[in-house]
UniProtKB/TrEMBL annotation:
This is ABC transporter ATP-binding protein. The lineage of its organism: Bacteria, Pseudomonadati, Pseudomonadota, Alphaproteobacteria, Hyphomicrobiales. Its main location: membrane. Residues 4-241 form the ABC transporter domain. Pfam families: ABC_tran, OB_MalK.
Amino acid sequence: MARIDLDHIRHAYGPNPKSPRDYALREVNHIFEDGGAYALLGPSGCGKTTLLNIISGLLHASHGRLLFDGRDVSHTSTQQRNIAQVFQFPVIYDTMTVYDNLAFPLRNRGVPEAEVDRKVRDTLAMIDLADWAKRRARGLTADQKQKISLGRGLVRSDVNAILFDEPLTVIDPHMKWVLRSQLKQLHRRFGYTMVYVTHDQTEALTFAETVVVMYDGEIVQIGTPAELFERPKHTFVGYFIGSPGMNVLPVEIDGGRARLGAQTIALPGAPKSTTGTLELGIRPEHVRLGRDGMPVSITKVEDIGRHKVVRATLEGREVVAIVGEDEEVPAEPKMRFEPRGINLYADSWRIETEA
Ligand code: ADP
Ligand code: MG
């Protein structure tokens, strides 16, 4: 396995890119450490597939360098990069047996037949497909075929990295869960360098130790699930992670306090010198509804099992709160923000407070 270094990577699909808008990847600098398990999380169209294809060599970046263990591989072929890639939809040979589908990438690289046999059998057992070895792929369902695709990615233990591009999209929800935990176990056992692309936060947060969040052609934050949740560096991260996402409210800052309409919110640790309009980010989990605080009117209550999602209007803005199942919401509720849950943003990027 290898350490993968993306050095000032930019990519434009069209000719003659002029503005940053013309780039699918605008400026990516990141190191995937050898043996790390990463999730690459972001909305559709943010550049995840483009980035994976640049790593595997299906695509050559318009600018920047790609290094494997410090060696520049920017201009090498897919074959030379030696990366296993599992795509969103199954890529298998319909006329071959399940066994031969897995054996193919190994035989292709001249692996001795005894080793091919051992690896294929091990991998089939790992993904619970041992009984299917002799079946032809043609008659299988989409999610069975996708398991074979996963198998084809996992069978090659000599690769520099394994890249997964939303591989569980066609898999049914229960199987998704099973396969994800199997991938995690494989990572622990073999120390693969794994990059797992998804637009699903639950999938990212359960798979990876490190989540790399992409937005609009850039990496906006890298962190553990807890870091992303508690200290979103960009309002997009706050909004995208958590369900419902973070509230973002425009506030006027003056003398270490935030003013939202007629309301004043204390900001422990906020720089006293900061003034002007900023964005205050607060998660629904840190919004309290009770008898003291700022007057609000409630517009909607959704009971979603262990808690309720309450939408309220504060100074003409919608604020979402999460309220425990047993918590009483008074008839004329007031709202408070837990100080530890407050983040401040200028042009969508978090500004460090002193608290
Ligand atoms: P994601 O995988 O995160 O959904 P992609 O990497 O597929 O995003 O796409 C990033 C951006 O590049 C999108 O705006 C998409 O429309 C554009 N794009 C992707 N593939 C091509 C292509 N072959 N030609 C032109 N534009 C493309
Ligand atoms: Mg994609």
